[in-house]
Amino acid sequence: MRTNEGFRERLFYVIHWAGFLTTSWITFWILREATEWPNLLGVFTVFVPLILGWLVRTLNEGYVSPLPWIKKKVREVQ
Fold first, then answer.
1. Fewer CB within 10 Å: N-end or C-end of the chain?
2. CA distance 55 to 16
3. Domain boundaries, given as residue ranges, for the chain
4. Which uninterrupted H or E stretch holds 38?
5. 53-70, pLDDT tens digit by residue?
């Protein structure tokens, strides 16, 4: 089932990137449209898509970097 494992790994990689890009888009939108800086809860809320994408990938593949372009795994899953 090597193909199935490769598919799952790529799927979680895409989910991680989707969370990162959503976070980037929300940040850009807030910086462009906001008339005042968001409060602390607003800042943490911006990172929810990134955290969820990273969490889904980490729970299935073992620990990976929160930044999706860094592919080096800290701990290999056996």
1. C
2. 8
3. 2-61
4. none
5. 889 888 888 888 877 777
